[in-house]
C-alpha cells in the first residue's frame, strides 16, 4: 500500500504541553469564554491578595502612633498571612474550576470565601476597637 492509498485520518489536536496535560488531564476543552472568565476571576482574587499585602505593610509602616506594638504587628501579620493564603488559594480555585469545566462536573464550592470573610472581619474589628479606644 502506498501513501496515496492510505485512508485519511482525523487531524491530531495540538498538544497543550506537558504541564498543562499534567494539571488538566482528560476531559474536553471548554468554551474559551468560560476559561477566560475563570482567569479573570483568578486575577480578581490576586488583586485582592495584593491589597491585603499592601494593607499589612501599611499597618506596620504607618500606624506606630495608633496601635500598641504587639497589636500592630499582630494585625500586620494577619493581613500578610491572609494575602499569602488568598494568593495560593486562588490558584487552587482556578485549577479546580478549570478541571470541573473540562469534565462537565459541578463547580466546586469556594472554600476560600469564608476564610477571607472571617479574617477580614477580625482585622476590621481590631482596627475599629483601637480607633474607638483612642
TrEMBL record:
Domain of life (superkingdom): Bacteria
InterPro entries: DUF202, IM_YidH-like
Taxonomic lineage of the native organism: Bacteria, Bacillati, Actinomycetota, Actinomycetes, Micrococcales
Record flagged with keyword Heme: no
Entry keyword annotation includes Membrane: yes
Protein name as annotated: DUF202 domain-containing protein
Transmembrane domains' residue ranges: 42-62, 74-95, 107-133
Chain positions covered by the region annotation Disordered: 1-32
Entry keyword set: Cell membrane, Membrane, Transmembrane, Transmembrane helix
Membrane-topology descriptor: Multi-pass membrane protein
DUF202 domain: residues covered: 33-99
Signal peptide extent: none
Compartments, as annotated in UniProt: Cell membrane
Organism: Pseudarthrobacter quantipunctorum
